[in-house]
Specification:
Blueprint (H helix, E strand, L loop, with lengths): L2 E6 L4 H11 L7 E7 L5 E7 L2 H10 L6 E7 L14 E3 L4 E6 L5 H10 L11 H17 L4 H15 L4 E7 L6 E6 L4 E4 L4 E4 L11 E4 L4 E6 L2 E6 L3 E3 L4 E2 L15 H7 L1 H9 L3 E2 L4 E2 L8 H5 L3 E6 L1 H18 L3 E5 H4 L10 E7 L5 H12 L4 E5 L5 H5 L2 E4 L12 H20 L4 H21 L3 H11 L4 E6 L3 H16 L2 E6 L17 E4 L6 H13 L4 E6 L4 H5 L2 E5 L7 H19 L18
Parallel strand pairs: 18-19, 18-20, 20-21, 21-22, 23-24, 23-25, 25-26, 26-27
Antiparallel strand pairs: 1-4, 1-10, 2-3, 2-4, 5-6, 6-7, 7-8, 8-12, 9-10, 9-11, 11-15, 12-13, 13-14, 16-17
Helix pairs in contact: 3-4, 4-5, 7-13, 7-14, 9-13, 9-16, 13-14, 14-19, 15-19, 16-19
The structure holds 6-O-phosphono-alpha-D-glucopyranose.
């Protein structure tokens, strides 16, 4: 949600800002804006509602030349998505500009105080208070005269931040100080890219790709004073800190659409490779187990774990449900899966042998972060299963496992989901091998995992057939998704995918539960998608399928290759490769991702940027 970019150097800032904002589009937004500053102190602001294209059109009318600038995509929280509410916001007599991500919880009382001091507010946002507050402190410091040069600006920002309650990723520009830019973070991600004689700021690393591979992840309570040729970071409590420069792991080519019409389709088709990347170097045939470099717990400590808590939101929560099945089956360690939004406010009885895994693609989801912090506060080891390197959750967890799935741009998660499933399956193997799982069983699981990317590639062969099926059902407005055991979470995820990008009402259920309510919905306009590759509950699911057919409901079935029985009953059948039950979620989700994709395209929906949704949900 919301994206920030900033530039200071020799280039025309607007070029980087606009491209950077486009690369952050995936985070979700409903208006955008930017401001540039030239060496003569000329400050130009351009804002637009809707897509970045609308902002780009306005910029064609008013080309901006400054070589310092900040930009923002806004996902409305306080006040509707209007030009007035879009960022940047100007402070005082237009002497400074800010862009802000996060929420200022005490904005109303600060606003009242600033109004009393004579400030005029132009927007309904909480963010605008930050702009005026900084101006207020600048004035005060000017009168006192005990802070001069750049320090006066840094102190004004720091004093303002000390008054804020809430979260911020913040960048500030000053009209009479075009040679500096100040960035600060608390709970909202911000990175600084180091170029040669130039610096970049962004909410995550993707805007930097192709510009620099040197990245600094700012931590909470840090303030960065950025000039074209220098970067100085201070921490609220520690004073000046030496910043760590890391290597950006995103390449510009990762963000290229290639010949695909949408990122979502590209990412669905990337899955064989993203799975290979997730697996790389993590399977040890000699010991018939998995290896993870960053758990930061010894095998001895992990053997003592008697309960695993998985917490997540959305698609990542569905991955957790599959994790529950596979970890319990392979390792016999009891697993619980909790929505992070529930866990954060609950006080479940958890003993000292419980560990928490937070599963999150972005590493920024506010509820998941809060649940992790709550468990950490109670002294439990917290680990992250995360895709975005250097993200807040990755930084705050005691240890973790990166997905290495590559950047996921489509809002609806696809390749990150299958990589999450893979990490959880490798964890199950690892925990299993610390306990009762035999060497031989471990080797068998490893062999199956090594073949998995090829099986997923084969399941992509159904694309044409799925497109045909999509055209048959794309006008329906209700879908049911049904599966059992390993395929129950897949039913939930398939339904969520359809909902997210095509705005069709869809519900996922364990197939047998259908009799307890959802069957009342069945009619000739409510297709049921059965996920039923051959396994030990196949005959039971077949009985459920018959119940739907008996009530006139159309059936689309996902089955294993060579299955002939289902085709006799179902209206449409999609074949996927036969794999062991614990790998079924990897191959059965592919046709469901494709189904939602094609239906959404046929309904004219904005597949990669669905309405109201954000990829990175940084508010509660
Ligand atoms: C949002 C996204 C979903 C994602 C969920 C959790 O709702 O639109 O695709 O599954 O957040 O995000 P996370 O980054 O924590 O996995």
């Amino acid at each position: 949600m919301c994206g920030i970019v900033g530039y200071i150097g020799q280039r025309t800032a607007v070029d980087f800002l606009l491209e950077g904002l486009r690369r952050l589009e995936y985070r979700g937004y409903d208006s955008a804006g930017l401001v540039t500053l030239d060496e003569n102190g000329r400050m130009d602001v351009v804002k637009a509602t809707g897509r970045i294209d609308a902002l780009a059109e306005k910029l064609e009318e008013t080309p901006l030349r400054g070589s310092v600038g900040i930009g923002h995509t806004r996902w409305a929280t306080h006040g509707p998505p209007t030009v007035e509410n879009a960022h940047p916001h100007l402070g005082g007599e237009n002497v400074l500009a800010i862009v802000h991500n996060g929420v200022v919880e005490n904005y109303q009382s600060l606003k009242d105080q600033l109004i009393d001091h004579g400030y005029h507010f132009r927007s309904a946002t909480d963010s605008e208070v930050i702009a005026h507050l900084i101006d207020f402190h600048l004035q005060q410091l000017g009168e006192q005269g005990d802070a001069t040069g750049d320090q006066r600006y840094v102190t004004a920002v720091e004093e303002s931040l000390s008054q804020l309650r809430g979260t911020y990723g913040l960048v500030v520009l000053f009209r009479d100080r075009p040679q500096i830019m100040i960035a600060a973070r608390l709970g909202s991600p911000l990175v600084v890219g180091i170029g040669s004689g130039e610096h970049f700021v962004a909410s995550d690393g993707s805007p930097l790709a192709g510009y620099t591979d040197k990245i600094v992840y700012l931590a909470d309570h840090q303030v960065a004073l950025i000039r074209a040729d220098s970067l100085k970071v201070t921490h609220r409590d520690e004073g000046h800190v030496k910043h760590r420069v890391e290597k950006l792991q995103i390449h510009a080519s990762n963000l290229d659409l290639e010949d695909y019409p949408h990122y979502m389709l590209k990412e669905i088709f990337e899955q064989p490779n993203s799975l290979r990347d997730t697996m790389r170097g993590r399977l040890c045939e000699d010991n018939a187990t998995a290896v993870f470099g960053g758990l930061n717990l010894t095998a001895q400590q992990l053997r003592q774990v008697n309960r695993i808590l998985l917490t997540a939101c959305g698609t990542s929560w569905h991955a957790g449900l599959v994790g529950e099945y596979v970890i319990e089956e392979m390792s016999r360690v009891p697993v619980e899966v909790e929505y992070a939004s529930e866990l954060r406010y609950r006080n479940p009885p958890v003993d000292h042998k419980t560990i928490l895994f937070a599963i999150t693609q972005s590493g920024e989801t506010a509820d998941t972060l809060a649940a992790l912090r709550e468990m950490k506060r109670k002294g439990h080891p917290t680990l992250a299963i995360c895709n975005v390197v250097g993200s807040t959750i990755a930084q705050e967890a005691d240890g973790g496992i990166y997905l290495h799935a590559g950047p996921e741009v489509g809002v609806a998660s696809t390749k990150a989901y299958t990589s999450q499933l893979l990490v959880l399956t490798m964890l199950a193997l690892y925990f299993g091998r610390l306990r009762h799982l035999s060497y031989e069983a471990g080797r068998r699981i490893i062999r199956a995992l090594q073949e998995l990317p090829d099986r997923v590639a084969e399941s992509l062969n159904c694309n044409d057939e799925v497109r045909r099926i999509a055209s048959k059902y794309c006008h329906e407005n209700n879908f049911l998704y049904l599966g059992r055991q390993y395929n129950f979470p897949t039913a939930l995820e398939g339904a969520l995918k359809l909902k997210e990008i095509s705005y069709i009402h869809a519900e996922g259920y364990p197939a047998a539960e259908m009799k307890h309510g959802p069957i009342a919905l069945v009619d000739e306009h409510t297709p049921s998608v059965f996920i039923m590759p051959r396994d030990f509950v196949y005959d039971k699911v077949m009985a459920n399928l018959e119940e739907i057919k008996a009530r006139g409901g159309p059936v689309i079935a996902i089955v294993g290759e060579g299955d002939t029985r289902v085709a006799e009953l179902a209206d449409d059948v999609i074949y996927v490769p036969n794999v062991e039950p614990f790998l079924q979620p990897f191959v059965t989700i592919v046709p469901l991702q494709l189904l939602s994709y094609h239906v959404a395209v046929m309904r004219g929906c904005d597949v990669d940027k669905p309405r109201n949704l954000a990829k990175s949900v940084t508010v509660e």
